[in-house]
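Standup notes
- DV: blocked on the single-chain target, sequence here:
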Amino acid sequence: MKHTTIWQDYARKACQRQLNARVLAAFNTNIDAVVHVTTELMEKITANDTSIDWKEVAGGSADQITTVKSKEDLLIILKDCLSGGKSFHIVLDNLALLDWLDEHFTGARESMGGQAGIIANQMAALGAQSMVYTPLLSPKQGKLFAEGVTTPVVADDRLEILPVPEAVRKDDETKINWIFEYAKGEAIPFGEEVVTTPRANRVILATRPRGSVMSFDDRIAAHLPKLGKNIDVAFMAGYHYAEPVNTDGRTFDEFMADSVHHLHALKEQNPKLVAHFEYVPMKMPELEPKMLEAICREIKSFGINENEIKRVLREFGFEAEMEEIERHERAYSLYKGALQLFGHLKLDRIHVHNLGYYVMLLRKPYPIAPDEVRQSCLYASSVNAMKAKYGGYVRPERLAEAAELELSDVGFEQLAGIAKELEGEHPQAASLLTDGYLEFDDHYLVVVPAHIVPNPVSTVGMGDTISSSSYAAEVMS
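- DV (later): unblocked, structure below
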């Protein structure tokens, strides 16, 4: 039997899995308001808002704007980015502009944003007991959570788990990201000036409300040991927002010390609770090594992609491994790079996801058999394939279709490639082709071919979907 046939059989069996884990996702949730910038839209704005200073827009430069304080600032950034086909991310400093955006950039499509929000909704759709903790839970944000998602609240010094609609707080601010997408070849007017877009891209205008602190508040923090008893796996996200001085006044060191303490408390009465951290690059790279080393004292599962791992390797001084990935990205070079992070951060599990295949390391003794980890990865790839094909959140009934999708040629080529390269390092290297894993002295290596869906409907949240689906499935093996 050819090994591709064996793997297709593995994938079909993986799609039969039922996900019933008790999951917590925290902290970062927001609303993504996506609007397409077109000729017609900008013509309407010009006609409807005569207060815009188009001379200021014509003479301004995006390089000189650090945060958006006026509508002219935003229009300068849009003009510069659209004319150069560039992507851009900037923070909205003047929240009064949100009403102006609602009024003039009509037709925006609102959806759940933020890793914790995306993971909570996807876990609920797959049948998990899904809980979310987010520092801001306005009615507007609450409406975007899937049915069945719950959240912890403290009332009369008692911890309660409530459905999100019962827990929303009308006075909470809403963290909203406006995403301005534009197509290639559009002629967009900015006053009397017209720019033509050389390629498609997007500009993100993010808000940072003061209450959006990526941490458990004091009332919840006192009940973390009890909260931890109610969950099997925690997906923690948002630490990349940490700054030298945070919006609540805590220094970086104070914020990280509290975060580590909270994570430890969450596991205090549930030694089987596991936690996963999905990497997002920090805005301040000089703080990133300290943040990762602190968080990974308590979080032993780590997710990252093929581009992100190069940055982290460089930050920790693993130049040779970073340069090898840069020179020839492949399963073998990602394995060698991941092995360095695995050791340095003292991880139990690292999941590197790439287009068409995954590379994973597991520290021995690992509580889940490596063939079950392989199956969990195939389950995650199937979920992600359906998300790529149809968008939205994948429900279990979709997996019957995923079961018949072929795994990618890229994945099988990488599997064969790493098996060949490991021949001199491991006597059973060829077994990777049929088993998908190898046992080393102190770790298992798992390499899994994944699906590739051409022309995906959406790529937003794919890393979050892969990592959460695979780990939640693994924990319930």
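- Follow-up: DSSP finds 20 helices and 19 strands in the chain.
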